[in-house]
Please model this.
Amino acid sequence: MTTKEQILRIGDELIRDKGINAFSFTDISGKLGIKNASVHYHFATKDALVLAVINRHIEKVTQLRERNAAKDPTFQLQAFISTYAVVKKENKICLVGSLASDLNTVNKTIRKKLTELADLILDWVTEILETGKSTGVFHFNTKTRTKALLVITAMLASVQLSRLTGDTDFKRIKESIIQELTTTL
Model:
């Protein structure tokens, strides 16, 4: 792994652990045993690093979506949900959730890029649900976009809330989403 990739990985971890305003390049250089100048060589500013982290997440979501596009809607939804299971297992929070809480303190470019990531996720889950509903795999009465927002919100919040209430609650929420969608009304 290159120094730049390590900086991105640690930056991602720090954003999701401490929030954008609670870490500095000194935290990154300290973890890597390098000078701050080395971090600045790859990312001139913290904003540049944050944008690179968001872009990396956009790439990952896009790849996951493309890799599972031909699969059935239940499998696709489970693939989406599994991203939160990984976040939960790593004892982190979702990047969107972390940055959204700092939204009023970030610049317009970061807001725009974060909105792009959120829209990508929302479009993907909406598409999964539309396909599932049209093929009779999923059953729900609300508008598809609203249902997608509910699914995303449940996963995002369950990662954070289950830090307090326990892993069992996360598992129950995760399982109930699929069960609720696949149960005939």
In short: The chain has one domain: 53-182. The longest helix spans residues 108-134.
